[in-house]
Specification:
The chain is of the alpha+beta class. It is about 45% helix and about 15% strand. It has a 4-stranded antiparallel sheet with strand order 1-2-4-3, sandwiched between helices.
Length: about 210
């Protein structure tokens, strides 16, 4: 049965409520997501922490039915790709991030320190191969993914994150550069099912003192 959506999206859930409510949903209502709601969600996601403030994550919002059908084929026909009104393709692009690193240097820095900070980041990652750089960026992308899932739930939308897909096909379909990594696809919309209840380890299973 459809989930209870009686609350307004303007009455945002707090972090604990959003985490408790979130489920991986595979059947969605067909209603389109208003642009303002999606912008509000992604505006939260952009605040995710990033080492050196590099922020290598990028998003493609896929609404077109033809493109979604192509994504579904690339994602082994997982039904949530076709069912959701939108699919967010999270990709990371370290090449672009390093080329524009000055954009991530805090504007409050004196010019000399800002230039030194940008040079430090370029020098640091310049010691890595392009493959190592993009692998690091993908790891940063998972931080943004966590923010995305909670922000969507807080705004009254359900999600289904997917790591099962063929990255090369997704890159080709969306015209993304060959070097970028794609940590996840995320189906998003109003859930038309309850989803499975949480079954998680207790704190004592995952936490220890040292």
């Amino acid at each position: 049965m459809p989930r209870d959506m009686s609350y307004e999206t303007t009455a945002l859930l707090d972090v604990k409520e959003a985490a408790a409510r979130r489920r991986s949903i595979r059947d969605f209502a067909p209603d389109a997501i208003p642009e303002g709601d999606l912008d509000a969600i992604l505006d939260v996601v952009r605040l995710a922490p990033s080492a050196f403030n590099v922020q290598p994550w990028r998003f493609v919002v896929v609404r077109d039915p033809g493109l979604k059908a192509g994504l579904a084929e690339a994602a082994f026909n997982q039904r949530q790709v076709r069912s959701a009104p939108a699919v967010l393709v999270l990709y990371t692009d370290m090449r672009d991030a390093l080329a524009t690193v000055e954009e991530t240097v805090h504007p409050g820095m004196p010019a000399e320190k800002a230039a030194a900070a940008a040079a430090h980041v370029r020098n640091l990652f310049g010691r890595q191969s392009p493959e190592q750089q993009e692998t690091w960026a993908a790891g940063q992308g998972y931080i943004a993914l966590g923010y995305l899932l909670l922000a969507a739930e807080a705004h009254g939308y359900q999600t289904s994150p997917m790591t099962g897909f063929e990255p090369a096909r997704v890159r080709t379909l969306l015209g993304l550069p060959e070097h970028v990594q794609i940590p996840a696809l995320v189906a998003i919309g109003r859930g038309a099912e309850e989803g499975f209840a949480h079954h998680r380890h207790p704190l004592g299973r995952i936490v220890r003192a040292a």
